[in-house]
Amino acid sequence: MSTVSTQPPSQSDRAARRRSTIAVAACTVFGAAAQILFKIGMSPGHFVPTLTGLATNVPLITGYVCYGVFTVVLVLALRQGELSMLYPIISLTYVWVTLASYWLLHEPPNWYKNLGVATIVIGVAVLGRGEHK
Amino acid sequence: MTALLIRSMLMVFFAGIIGSFGAVFLKLGAARLNQSILSFANARLVWGVGLYLGSSVVYTLALRGGQLSVLYPMVSLGYIWTILWARLLFHEAFTKQKIAGLALILLGVALVGVGGS
């Protein structure tokens, strides 16, 4: 998806790339919020598997809105940004979700989870480098 | 590891496969877009959006059976399918970095799985 340019990047190229980077970094927060809201919305206290139950499930609906924003911003940014730069930033979502699961959902933290998430983030960054030509 | 957690993990895995097909259809559909607003109604794009939505419904249902800190990292397994379909359908190269990245992701998911059991 990334384009190869033989000329040095122009001022406007660099500005567009910086805008993509900032937009993606901001949208990882939406992505993480979506996950927390999904989990709350699907908990026994909130999840009612009827049409009215789903239509009045505020966390679940807000979660889907956040997820929609996250997805659209990502798709737009990935069209013009440098994947080797954007992939590691996107993978920050895994870090936010893990921290928020500990702090907001009170899930038990442990080193296997932390090490696992760190390994995934590195893996995604390596993948992004593979896309970079 | 409880049967409920294993079922949830399988659902996240399955949701990743559905979502990766959604991405393929979105890519095919996006190639057909032109100036006309009607071009958004092309079958490929509609399938892409539908599969994406279906995938997220399966995923949210899976969340009922396990911790978010265990199930969400499993979403990264979706990269396996993305890279496989990109290779098979769009003839994108299979580089050493991609293989190394996927191996690290698998290792990371395994570690998180150990942490959750």
Measured as a percent range, the helix fraction of chain A is over 70%
Shape of chain B: flat
Number of strands of chain B: 0
General form of chain A: flat
Give the domain tally of chain B: 1
Number of strands of chain A: 0
H-E order of chain B = HHHHH
Question: How big is the Rg of chain B?
Answer: 16 Å
Q: What percent strand of chain B?
A: under 5%
- Taking pLDDT < 50 over at least 5 consecutive residues as the criterion, the unreliable ranges of chain B are none
Structural class of chain B: mainly alpha
Total number of distinct structural domains of chain A = 1
- Listing every helix as H and every strand as E from the N terminus to the C terminus, the arrangement of chain A reads HHHHHH
Describe the fold and architecture.
The complex is a heterodimer of chains A (133) and B (117). Chain A is mainly α. The model of chain A has no long low-confidence stretch (mean pLDDT 87). Chain A has one domain (12-131). Chain A has helices at 11-41, 51-55, 58-80, 83-90, 92-103, 111-131. Helix content of chain B is 74%, strand content 0%. In chain B, helix 1 runs antiparallel to helix 2. Chain B has five helices and no strands. At the A-B interface, helix 1, helix 3, helix 5 and helix 6 of A face helix 2, helix 3 and helix 5 of B.
List the helices and strands and how they pair.
The complex is a heterodimer of chains A (133) and B (117).
Chain A: H1 11-41, H2 51-55, H3 58-80, H4 83-90, H5 92-103, H6 111-131
Chain B: H1 3-30, H2 43-62, H3 68-71, H4 78-90, H5 96-116
Helix pairs in contact in B: 1-2, 1-4
What's the short version?
The complex is a heterodimer of chains A (133) and B (117). Helices cover 75% and strands 0% of the residues of chain A. By secondary structure, chain A is mainly α.
What would the keywords be for this entry?
heterodimer, A: 133 residues, mainly alpha, flat, B: 117 residues
